[in-house]
Structures are given as C-alpha cells and as structure tokens.
Amino acid sequence: MPVHGIFGNAHAAAFFRRPAQGHSMLLETGGYQGSFYRVSFIVFLPCISFAIVVSGCSAAKDNWRSVCHCPGRENCVAGCVVYISIIGFSSPGSSYISAYTYGLMHRLHHAHTDQPEDPHSPHNDPNPFLMMWTTRTNYFHLYIGKTDAPDKYKKNLPDWERFDRFAHNYITRILWIGVYIGIYALLATAWWQWLFLPATIIMGSLQGMAVNWWAHKFGYENYTMSNTSKNILPVDLLFMG
Fold this sequence. Notes:
By secondary structure, this protein is mainly α. Helix content is about 60%, strand content about 0%.
C-alpha cells in the first residue's frame, strides 16, 4: 500500500523500497523531487526534536539561571534583559512567557519549595498535568497582577513591559503557529509527523513540566533535604538546567 504524504503522492514509500536492478534510487523516486522527499523525511524528526527540546530548554534556562539565580546583581540583569527577552521569544515562540513574571514565580518557588505557597511544585499536585495547570494559573495571576508578591522578590528582575505586550498577546502566538504549520507543510512526508505539531506549539510548557517534575520526583540527593529537590545529572544536560 503506498504511503501518501502531505504532498499527496507515494514518494515517501519509495524511501523504504530497494531500487530495481539497474535503476538508481534517485530515478525510482522521481528524480530530484524524490530526492527532496527523502531528505525532508530524514531531517524532519531531528529538526522537530531540536525545536521542541533545545529551543524550549534554552528559553527556560536563560529565564531561570540569568533571572532567578542572580538576585542583587544589577549589572547581570541590566545587561541580559534584551537577550533574555528576545531569546525567550524566538525559541519557544507560541509558548512565550514573560521573563519578569517567570523570574518572580520561580523565586517564589525557591522561597516556598513544596509549601502551599509554592507556585509550581509536584509535591502539591498528583500528576504533572495538574502541576502545569496550577503553574499556568499562578503564572497568569502574577502576570495580570491578580496575585501580588513581596517587593524583595521583584528586585532586579528584567522588566520590558512593551516587549511583553507584543510577545505575550494571542495574535503573536497565532502567527507563530502559522510559521510552524508552514515548516511542517514543507518537511512532513507522512500524516503521523503532524502529531508533533501540538508539542511544537506548547514546547515551553513541556520543558517546564519535564524540568520541574523530574527535578522533584526522580534523581538523587547528595545530602538530606527538607524538601523534594533532587539532582538529575546527567539527564539535566538534555534539559539545559
């Protein structure tokens, strides 16, 4: 049975067939067009995996380490505010989060780890999906000002309000989704490859779930802790933090 890709032909199936004797794979799959389909099939999964894992992780890494873990170092934040915001926008795209709000939320996480005031702890929710819904609720309450936090947690956070208004609105998110759909239309050669599209759209949230759930549920401790924080080396190298 021929395998029909998004372009409505059976070139993808030829990738799995041995060419007839005396014929090259290039000719069997329709010349240079068939070659394109084979190449797109080969590069599709690595490209999408890179986008979902590395891009999502890089944005979270920049927000987390540069913002949350250098409080009081004014030059660090002032010098990185543009870099953090732009990288945090261009990497996860449609799942952009404000560096200011994320930094504030994650400082509260470190200050109240596993306590009821912790905005995103797996200790407080029975599964990672409920944890991410709690995280989403707490994030938006902080972003719109419904939830306030002590001033000491707001010190030296990168606050680019105008950029946040541009990157955080739904029109910008929809435009990013359109870009992703265009990339899939160009590279996808089979229907099942489109199943990665939802993960691409919410890649930032998936990274947050992976890091915050893994780092509290699995791993090891170097000494006795009063909370569920753990080390996950070498897995955290994949998550970039």
